[in-house]
Amino acid sequence: MGKTTRREFIKKSGFTLVTVGVSERAFLRHMNLAANSALTAAAALSTTDHILVVIQESGGNDGLNTVIPMSSSLYAEYRRRRPTLAVQQDRILPLSKPDEAGNLLGFHPNLAKMKALFDQGRVSVIQSVGYQNANRSHFDSMVVWHTADPVDPGGTGWLGDSLDVSFPSNDNPLIGVSIGRTLPVSLRGRNVAVPAIEDPQTYQLQTDDGYPGDRNNRIQTLLALNREQAPERLYWDIVGQTALDTQESSEALQAVISRYTSDPNIQYPDNNPLARALLTVAQIIAGGLGTKILYVTLGGFDTHQTQNGQSGQGGQPLLLQRLDEAVNAFYQDMKRLGKDDKVLIMTWSEFGRKVGENGNGGTDHGAAAPQFVIGSQVQGGIIGEHPSLTNLDRDDGTIYSIDFRSYYATILEKWLEVDSKEILGGSFEVLPFI
User: Fold this and answer.
1) Which domain holds residue 133?
2) Residue 429 falls within a domain, yes or no?
3) Cα 258 vs. chain centroid, distance in angstroms?
């Protein structure tokens, strides 16, 4: 009888690869191409048990309708520039602390749970975060934020680099996880591979649903056949290790999710995509898989038209409500699990919006914007001051006062406990929010 070929085995076994979002760096890490890089040379094993959860607000969140000025002169100018979009002053949720210039500020009315966390000292607002000559292109500005490089963006991401520095010999395939269809540039490193997982239930290598117990043997058999018959044996060694990593992490992931026990008092709304993603994050953290960075995205913030929604429904108010519900549920869940002092949540968006509303009931691409940091280890309050609404850049955007790399440097130094200079390419001020 003739020798079994790869094609015959695949046909008989039903072997298919479910898209799991493992980047091409999965191959590079086994080939050790980064062995001589500056990051690897400077690397030291991380000993911190801290976990970072990143929320990307994709599209450019309007910071002026998120953290709203309440002091008389600022509010009057805000109202003048936004005659239809400005939030009525009696609906704004006043914050218990002013900014560093003494300005009174408040949250959008749909951020009531976030406001309660702020009053408890669990939220820090980082005002006017941005960079010089802000790029108004979604793609270009996202790459700047992903790579932490406004001058020559591209290549690896700041979070991927931090994993390379902290875990140069990493063998945990879930050391970082992105919840979503694609891997964000932020998590792309030279050495450590990070998976993008859209649905934990389909994060697996499928062979034959009728024989799930044989899956690992079938994977091993296929890989052995490829090594025998393909001249590119190194390639198949790399593919094989990636396949086994995927299978092992899939089984571990599904096991911890099945063991997770919910609390009826903590609600992750089913109709809230961010809440669903953060529920998966909570399950991973509860399972103790050693994941250090988890990444989720909430899209829809590009509000050129009907920013306040139709008849008071949808638009940015709905997105802020989703952020509010999801973050609160996740934070309360971490407290229940006794993990709240080990988990830090940070937000970012590629830019803010212009100060003035446009003629379509929306706002156009701007520059600087506020960001949130949430957690039990946060020094609650407001870092910086509300931007001027009259001293603007040449395209009606607010002028940044805090470099986004200072925001990152603080996370890197104070939370992830790595040398930010190696990742950011220079020294940036560490802010007092941790």
Assistant:
1) 6-424
2) no
3) 24
- What confidence tens digit (pLDDT) does each residue in 230-254 have? 545 544 444 445 555 666 677 778 8
Instruction: Decide if 431 is inside a domain.
Output: no
- The answer as to whether 16 is a domain residue is yes
**Residue 315 counted as domain residue:** yes
Please give the Cα distance from 158 to 411 (Å, whole number).
11
First to last CA, the chain: 68
Number of structural domains the chain divides into: 1
Element (H, E) at 51: strand 51-57
Q: Is 298 helix (H, G, I), strand (E, B) or coil?
A: strand
- Taking only the tens place, the pLDDT of each residue in 362-415 is 999 999 999 999 999 999 999 999 999 999 999 999 999 999 999 999 999 999
Strand partners, 106: 68, 94
Residues 214-235 as b or e (16 or more Cβ within 10 Å = b) = ebbebbebbbebbbeeeeeeee
| Structural tokens at position 403 | 């470099």
Q: What is the pTM of this model?
A: 0.85
Single-letter amino acid, residue 417:
E
